[in-house]
Amino acid sequence: MKRANRPAALPVVTPVLALLLATPAFGIDFQFEGYGDIRLVMAPKTDSLLDGGLGKLRFGEDDGGIEPGDIVGEGRAIILPELTATATVRANPDYGPAVDLLEAFVRYRPVSTNAWRWSVKLGAFFPPLSLENDQVGWTSFWTITPSAINSWVGDELRILGAEGTLEYRREDQTITLVGAVFGWNDPAGVVMADRGWDFNDRPQGLFEHNRLPDISGFGAPPPVYGKLFTEMDGRPGWYLDLSWEPEDLGGFEIMRYDNDADPRRIKDGQIAWATSFWDVGYQKQLGKMTVLAQGMTGSTTIVPSDFYRQTTDFRSAYALVGYDLDKWWMAARFDVFDTRTRATFPSDANEDGHAITLSMSWLPEKWLRFTGEMIAIDDRRDSRAETGEDPHRNETQFQLLARIYF
User: Fold this and answer.
1) Is 1 inside a domain boundary?
2) Which helix (H) or strand (E) holds 176?
3) CA distance 213 to 191
4) Helix (H), strand (E) at residue 152
5) Which residues contact 237 (CB under 8 A, 6 or more apart)?
6) Cα–Cα distance, 198 to 348 (Å, whole number)
7) Please, which pLDDT band fits residue 21 given cuts at 50, 70 and 90?
8) Which of 43, 56, 392, 397 has the lowest tally of Cβ within 10 angstroms?
9) What SS3 class is residue 179?
10) Does residue 229 fall inside a structural domain?
11) Whole-number pLDDT of residue 20
């Protein structure tokens, strides 16, 4: 599964990295945290999505047994009480660059003495829509593998731009409005259209190319890659996210995202995908039980010529119930997902599926975690017929993870 990729230019993160590297010389406070893991994997006898297949899981027929995981580190420089710079780095020689960035940004948040608080952020970062992936390195507290929704966010979305947050706080509720403008994400949507939904705990690095399904090459020999973090049309994308957290009712969130890409633009052999979606979420704490639910519906479109237009509509939702027993926690999640492709010529890229994830973790020490996870997926993707495969597929993946925090 080792694939060498050429780095891409992302000038928006350069000032953040320069600031982090310079902090020791100025005596600025520096914080660091991270983890490293290793896994015992029982993989399905199908093709892994990371190997250019149409499987739905990170691991496939060429994997199994002991699999080295990732080493992830997050550094935070506290320049002033109001100003911080953060960078998250991942090391894994099996895919793309051996060392890559996941995020790099600066944030200014002045001290607030009243009910209002605001902040601004500049750089490269994940959009604030995940209820699961709130740990270092875009990882989940409850499971190893995130939902289909948050797997796709890690696969294709990264905000390279500026984000502003306005927050109103009272004793009984908090209301937060987040807005952003960004660039360098015009190809986002190609993975959804060509591969569909997946379940993958390895988010895309900023400098690597995304491995697309081999059938995406239109006869070109594999491997086929897409350079996702590219500016193609000079038009900024945007999102708005509104959340409301009343004290007794839980937390509600709604987001509108639109990369505002020009679907007719072609650059360096890539097409810009006009991608937009609505996202809604809910979370509630019931004693030691946590309930999370999230849904997404959207579309992605290309118009590469006057004679061809393609739109892929995508939908997914999940519900997760987690139970915390101090050093032990358990979680169960149910996902549903589908895509529908409408094109000038007949398309075979539709899919329907559902998945069940069961997970149990044990933390004997604050620095050590063991997690066992099972994912069972039942789906049908019509494009598998192009390679002579059965469009319907059942895939089951077991993992036993040992993770050390530092």
Assistant:
1) no
2) strand 173-183
3) 8
4) helix 148-156
5) 161, 181, 182, 183, 185, 257, 258, 259, 260, 261
6) 18
7) low
8) 392
9) strand
10) yes
11) 57
